[in-house]
Design a protein that fits this description.
This protein is an alpha/beta fold and 271 residues long. It has a single domain, classed as TIM Barrel (Alpha-Beta Barrel). It is 43% helix and 14% strand. The protein has 12 helices and 8 strands. It has an 8-stranded parallel sheet with strand order 2-1-8-7-6-5-4-3. Strand 7 (208-210), helix 10 (220-227) and strand 8 (235-239) form a beta-alpha-beta unit. Helix 8 runs parallel beside helix 9 (193-203). The protein is globular, with a radius of gyration of 18 Å. The protein starts with a helix and ends with a helix. Residues 17-256 form the Orotidine 5'-phosphate decarboxylase domain. The active site is at 95 (proton donor). It is an enzyme of class 4 (lyase). Pathway: Pyrimidine metabolism; UMP biosynthesis via de novo pathway; UMP from orotate: step 2/2.
């Protein structure tokens, strides 16, 4: 599966810009899953099966699996998504960033071990740290640019010369020098809609992964208006906790579906 093609197809065929983040926290699982060795997989599987037709992508966060020694359940989950819901892109949220030789191993981990279709990466170490991902044109490389956390401004707003801020430099490089294979996207937080608009201005129709709505309080209307492409797509607007934990009993998946449908419809109102 080519990530960019699959994403464009999902935007069109499912009429959705919603990305559901898979951040499983066993402490918040329904009681009937308590103590099960496969609880993380089963929780996420039910969320996936209940919401797949409503999303343009899923985004599992690797730390929520690794912290519980559940990497095998992450492998099984991504395999399940591909087998049960073909054409649904999976973005592995890992935020990797290291020297080229180490990055090569991280790329193997993400794309060959876990079977992800895209990965989030940190550009702080420059182009050679991104090359192992960029060299796989069928895979998406989603580069951190303007993150949703308050501390992101510590570095991302620094003037790097000529009045250009660091996040603008990252956006410009991502859209030009780093995007020879057309497989690059950017992470821009919903908590900063003005910066979303600036990144869209610098990058044309490049896909933007936008965390920060739902539990983090990002404004959906402002996000969509600032970040949509000329075609009314171009966004993977991520919601995790507000969907995953919409319900707390054995009917949690149905509650997640209702929350996902409400969020998708709200996003679509502003396209």
């Amino acid at each position: 599966m080519h990530f960019m093609t699959a994403l464009a197809d999902a935007w069109r065929n499912r009429d959705s810009l919603l990305c559901v983040g898979l951040d499983p926290d066993p402490a918040r699982f329904p009681k009937h899953l308590a103590g099960r060795p496969d609880a993380i997989f089963e929780f996420c599987r039910e969320i996936v099966d209940a919401t797949a037709d409503l999303v343009c992508a899923f985004k599992p966060q690797i730390a929520y699996f690794a912290a519980h020694r559940a990497e095998d359940q992450l492998e099984a989950l991504i395999s399940h998504i591909h087998e049960r819901h073909p054409g649904t892109p999976v973005v592995l949220d890992a935020k990797r960033g290291d020297i080229g030789s180490t990055a090569k191993q991280y790329a193997v981990e993400a794309f060959e071990r876990f079977g992800a279709d895209a990965i989030t990466v940190n550009p702080f170490m420059g182009r050679d740290s991104l090359e192992p991902y960029l060299g796989r044109p069928d895979k998406g490389v989603i580069v951190l640019c303007r993150t949703s956390n308050p501390g992101g401004s510590d570095l991302q707003f620094l003037d790097v010369g000529g009045g250009e801020r660091l996040f603008e430099r990252v956006a410009r490089l991502a859209a030009t020098e780093w995007n020879a294979s057309g497989n690059v996207g950017l992470v821009v937080g919903a908590t900063f809609p003005a910066e979303i608009g600036r990144v869209r201005e610098l990058t044309g129709d490049m896909p933007l992964l936008v965390p920060g709505i739902g539990a983090q309080g990002g404004d959906v209307a402002a996000t969509v208006r600032a970040g949509r492409s000329a075609a009314g797509t171009g966004l993977m607007i991520n919601s995790s906790r507000a969907i995953l934990y919409a319900g707390s009993d054995e009917h949690f998946a149905e509650a997640a579906r209702r929350a996902a449908e409400t969020t998708r419809d709200e996003i679509n109102r502003y396209r």
